[in-house]
């Protein structure tokens, strides 16, 4: 990655992080409710029976209620567990599943680990992002876990990045290893983007 791209990403992440920290509790609650509805509509529209999702941190759009609800309705939801080698293990969500602090302080499920290839069988991936552009360029938080996961999948299913509405940004710095997404989910809308050729 060139220094210019790395610096631009760092600056944008810092700005987005600050914006997220400044959100009011009322705005967070409204966003959580909206995101839950959008994700329910997405899995219904795509007849999803198995999916990958993530457990949000306190500043991300809240996915916890959706994950609990989806698992209770019989959707097989795989949740990521970070590994020191840069890969993701996966565990199956349960409605009353225990959550612990994983690497980097992220909320992660406690339970049997299925290994990195378990995600190859999902109908859709729902992943975190700092921002996404309308052409599918995703800005993550800089550790590369999801770029590695998406880049290594044969026949990758649709990938939807979750962001707040204000985080759909036209101009996101992009490097060669950055994997595009096929859709964006916000608290008010779900966008399926034009194919990128991946």
From TrEMBL:
Its cofactor is Mg(2+). Substrate binds at residues 55, 60. Pfam families: 5-FTHF_cyc-lig. SUPFAM superfamilies: NagB/RpiA/CoA transferase-like. One of its GO terms (biological process) is tetrahydrofolate interconversion. ATP binds at residues 9-13, 138-146. It catalyses: (6S)-5-formyl-5,6,7,8-tetrahydrofolate + ATP = (6R)-5,10-methenyltetrahydrofolate + ADP + phosphate. It comes from the Bacteria. It is an enzyme of class 6 (ligase). InterPro entries: FTHF_cligase, FTHF_cligase-like_sf, NagB/RpiA_transferase-like. Keywords: ATP-binding, Magnesium, Metal-binding, Nucleotide-binding. Its EC number is 6.3.3.2. GO terms for molecular function: 5-formyltetrahydrofolate cyclo-ligase activity; ATP binding; metal ion binding. Belongs to the 5-formyltetrahydrofolate cyclo-ligase family. PANTHER family: 5-FORMYLTETRAHYDROFOLATE CYCLO-LIGASE, ATPASE INHIBITOR/5-FORMYLTETRAHYDROFOLATE CYCLO-LIGASE. NCBIfam families: MTHFS_bact. This is 5-formyltetrahydrofolate cyclo-ligase. It comes from Microbacterium aurantiacum.
